[in-house]
Amino acid sequence: MNPLTAEDVAPHRPEELTAFRGIEAWIFDLDNTLYPRDTNLFVQIDERIRSYVQELLGVDETEAHRIQKDFYEQHGTSLRGLMLEHQVDVDSFLEYVHDIDRSALKPDPALASAIERLPGRKFIFTNGSRAHALKTAEQLGFKDHFEDIFDIVAAELLPKPQRLTYERFVNRFDVFPEKAAMFEDLARNLSVPKSIGMTTVLVVPSGTREVFHAEWEMEGHDGAEHVDFVTDDLAAFVAEIADAIEA
Ligand SMILES: [Mg+2]
Predict the structure, then answer these.
(1) pLDDT at residue 5 above 80?
(2) CA of 33 to the centre of ligand 1 (A)
(3) In angstroms, what is the span from residue 178 Cα to ligand 1's centroid?
(4) Which phi and psi angles does 121 have, rounded to 5°?
């Protein structure tokens, strides 16, 4: 395989972003997408899930961690595992695990104004709870940016990347996948969107876009074929999309 050239890892050229012309629905994941991974919000949720499991089952932290990861792998979310195997109350679980400190989360006016410029409908599509999405969006400085939030309860507890969950989403909001774009920090959550016709954007941690891009090009990464665009700066990328649409 030829070595990578500067061209391969260069930012997307403006003309490529015209792919977003005609998009009518903009769908954003919440955790580690609308806010950066390094704010450690999701780490807190992860810890709350672990302590919930610890208390519920009367096990130590190591065992709780093992059970949590096992549920996640087998059922897609810890909640689904707890529901199926221990009949936990959904509302109390969601309230407990999302009871976190959001003070590290700074308002993001650049992202807010970039999203505001996108023409069409905007949604948050999360495996978390609606209350968590609302509180987090408020802390980030989003006001009326999003038409609605599709959460894990709306998904009937079946998380992304389950195909049925995307189908429920598009049916609920009458979204045409061919006229929708989806933004996500997990490549596996973009596989179904791409297969049903959406334009897909993978959001990676700041400063790592070149690394991700290069890895894929070199190793034929599984994620490559269902990821149309990669960005490590969502606000700047969305602003570029808006520029390309307006041009
Ligand atoms: Mg996420």
Answers:
(1) no
(2) 5
(3) 22
(4) -90, 150
Pairing relation of β-strands 25-28 and 121-125? Answer: parallel
How many angstroms separate the CA atoms of 128 and 151, rounded? 6
Residue 9 — very low, low, confident or very high, per pLDDT cuts 50/70/90?
Answer: very low
Q: Kindly tell me the burial class for residue 26, based on how many C-beta atoms sit within 10 Å of its own C-beta (0-12, 13-18, 19 or more).
A: buried
Question: In angstroms, what is the span from residue 28 Cα to ligand 1's centroid?
Answer: 9
For residue 230, report the distance from its CA to the centre of ligand 1, in Å.
14
Domains, in order of start, for the chain: 6-37+106-246 (3.40.50.1000), 41-97 (1.10.150.450)
Please state, in angstroms and rounded to a whole number, the distance separating the CA atoms of residues 202 and 108: 19
Percent of the chain at pLDDT above 70?
A: 87
Residues constituting the chain: 247
User: Distance from the CA of 153 to the center of ligand 1, in angstroms?
Assistant: 16
Q: Give the pair of three-digit tokens for residue 48.
A: 């709350």
Residues 96-107 pLDDT 10s = 999 999 998 999
Q: What separation in Å is there between the alpha carbon of 235 and the centre of ligand 1?
A: 16
Q: How confident is the model at residue 21 (pLDDT cuts 50, 70, 90)?
A: very high
CB-neighbour burial class of residue 76 (10 A; exposed 0-12, middle 13-18, buried 19+): buried
- Ligand 1 midpoint to CA 24 (Å): 22
